[in-house]
Amino acid sequence: MYDWQIPLTYLLSSVLFIFSIRSLSSPKTAVVGNLLGMIGMSVAVLITLFSPYMQDKQLPLLVIISGAIIGIYTALKVKMTALPQMIAALNGLGGLAAVFISFSELITGSSAFLEITLGMVIGAIAFSGSLIAFAKLQGILPSRALTFKYQHVFNFILISFCIYLALCFLSQREFFFFYLLSGLALILGIMIVLPIGGADMPVVISLLNSYSGWAAVGIGFSIGNVLLIIVGSLVGASGAILSYIMVKAMNRSLLNVLLGGFGSTQDHNTSTPTSQNAKSGSPQDAAFIMENARKIIIVPGYGMAVSQAQHVLQKMAEDLRSLYDVEVKFAIHPVAGRMPGHMNVLLAEANVDYANVYGLEEINHEFADTDVAYVIGANDITNPQAKNDPSSPLYGMPILDVAKAKTIFFVKRSLSTGYAGTDNPLFYAPNTIMLYGDAKKITEEIVRYLEKNKGSALQSL
Amino acid sequence: MEIWSFLTIFVLACFVGYFVVWGVTPALHSPLMSVSNAISGIVLIGALIAAGTDTNTTAKALGLIGVFLASVNIFGGFTVTQRMLSMFKKKEKK
User: Fold this and answer.
1) Residues of chain A with pLDDT under 70
2) A63 and A204 in a common domain
3) CB A34 within 8 A of CB B78
4) By residue range, what is the domain housing residue A237?
5) Tens-digit pLDDT profile for residues A430-448
6) Which pLDDT belongs to residue B90?
7) Whether residue A328 is found in the same domain as residue A382
8) Which chain A positions have a beta carbon within 8 Å of B18's beta carbon?
9) Whether A71 and B76 lie within 8 Å, measured CB to CB
């Protein structure tokens, strides 16, 4: 092997990865992009495997194959609803791999102590944090913010102690400090994610994603590998930007999300179901109003994901279009669901044409000339308090202006508050009709009436 | 000094990442996460180098564990991304 072959392959691989992410600018090119990513990974792994570094090739190759089988099998088996936790779990594995590599580097006598320490700490946080995120998304742990007294004080002491240990290790080079630090970093990862509640999950998942990238950068520095540095930076930047977008879409700061406990303190608001009356209606009423509408915008939220209503929702949209000639669009808030782009994936799964799916800024001006807003399993992202109540925890968050539609349907189980723990005044608006029940069942009922009404109209002709 | 060229590459790569990621359409943010997740499995390279040695058994074992974890991450990540993207693709043909 010539000595230019490895660097050249790594360069090629880096370029392929950049194109792979670049291709996600449009759904048309995205599939090719994923393929480029796979090729980039394959060439990098193969050239390393056959490089002179490798005294033993068989055993590592065998381990790769067994990992591949498990990875592919799990990824094919996992249900699309379990996607957020699947991503969290995979992310954790990458972090844990970084931890093991840094340990291995350390005991083989590498002298890049600072780099190894950084790679290890970030990897450990990514691992244990992802583990907690996984447990919350999977329902093993309650998804709400788990907080305790003096949590911030505890975390502050923990972080300080981590820094102290890192300094001890770097100055005295005693492995004992490194081992202790790895344990504390794992605890830190747990402590960071525990106080973060369900609806803030998109931020956390993106952030952990970013960490796994920075951990790769740390490993790259410690073994002097340019490919790891470049690719780790791409991933780190990607996760960081996604976190930024999510945080902006909630008008909060990253610090505010990380300090956690959001929504858990507003309990006094929940206990007052006010004397106002919310109007409730039946699926039959809803079907009648929607038949006669000219334009409908559907606003999905996490509730749609929970009840798996996306398929029947698409059926409803198709019926309205084909039987009644209604214009139907979907509006997606950036933080709807449990990970960035969660709603888009679910709608894509149900075969909703992505040309009919719009983002917050693209569609918000259209609510004013919309007859019906069908809000299914969403709440906070439509709450007008975000605009006009400075005392609300939601104040300043960009919302979907469903209030401007002529009629608003809320498909919800009850009048309960959303994640922010604050009442939604829109429930009591004169043009709002509540449809109480499971998102999927209600929508199925509506579809039934839509199809029945058309049938009887045809018969009477 | 070698560290300075690494640092230069690192900073420039962050800029590339910044500009490339802002070009991603919001509808594909989930695939972006899962593909970047798969790509972060590039630590496999580091794990392989650690596992390739025959001189230190402990280091080799640790490296092999790293190889295993990173492989699951890579193959799982790309497969999940492929599944997601194929759902977006279906609509084009229709």
Assistant:
1) 260-276, 456-461
2) no
3) yes
4) 95-259
5) 899 999 989 999 999 999 9
6) 58
7) yes
8) 237, 241
9) yes
